[in-house]
Amino acid sequence: MTLSYDELEEFRRSLRRFVERELIPFERRVMTEAERRKAQDSAREAGFWLMDVPEALGGQGLGMRGMAVFWHEVSRTTALPARDHSLFGPVTGPILLSLSGQQKERYLDPVLAGRKRACFAQTEPDAGSDPASMRTRAARKGNRYVINGVKRFITHADVADFAQVIAVTDPAKGVRGGISCFLVDMDTPGLRIATQHETMMGDRPCELVFDNVEILEENRVGAEGVGFSVAQSWLNEGRIRHGARACGVAERCLELAVDYVKQRRTFGEPLAERQGVQWILADCFTELHATKLMVRDAAEKVDAGTEARAETLMAKIYGDEMGFRVADRCLQLHGGIGLTTELPIEKFWRDQRSFMITEGPTEVLRTALAKMILRGAA
Fold first, then answer.
1. Residue tagged active-site, from 73, 124, 207, 359
2. Secondary structure (DSSP) of 229-281
3. pLDDT 10s digits, 41-71
């Protein structure tokens, strides 16, 4: 579904009202399960449900411009986990929407109905930003595959019913036709959660161990060897999500900082009267505006079906770093109170720092962008 600019703006205003009314009041405490269900019901009633799922499957079918607005607005609050928007409907990415036939009936349909949850297992101890170094192996055995290996930092694996697993099927081919994708039920013999990592963001990603895990060939997604391209197909979307999230974070932190420096007085005058403070606010506002334009440009290109890899790389690189810089400056402007959990800024600060590492460290993405520039592809 493609929204006009006027429709997008109305969508933004409506979603902002929802976030301010239903979510921001929970920033200083964790929602109970009953409160979460109530907020989910409110989201569904307001039409904020399954935003990126095609209309044919009961979703809103928003294009990338609409999803950028959605990610921007819901990221203005710390009431939701930074990596979990399931309050607005089950998460289907990055592979499930491509399923058909029996796989759709066994996995996608139950997820959309809320009966099952999925996790995505690609990252490994020695293959984070370098998937070509992946060691988890799926060896064919008749009409089955036997999977052995370790996956690390797998979000929601502890509550998932099945995993979308990326594994090597032909080591000689590597990322060029040697990696496949599989759907693996979490209760399959040989699959276990070895540990959960405590992070500064508050979430607890898991380490999964695959010890001679046997699955049927019918659990492979697509043809053998296309798993890497299937898994990477969502990268442009993910990078735009990062940029849009950074805009929501920076915008909220800046709003809090503006209110604070107007009322906080030191040495006889408001902080807002000090040139040093004014310049900080001006820089924050300028960088936020630049990121908004980057995100909008990248989203429009993706919606138009044009090549947008360079634009999405820049949106994530600049956006993630901008979001952290703005959160950091706004925390500094608040002084000691900024370090407390009475305000959401310290949580924004921690989350934004983590996004500069996850789903593609900024250094790796800069290298990828530089290679595009050098060969004239940017």
1. 359
2. HHHHTTHHHHHHHHHHHHHHHHHHHHHHHHHHHHH-EETTEEGGG-HHHHHHH
3. 999 999 999 999 999 999 999 999 999 999 9
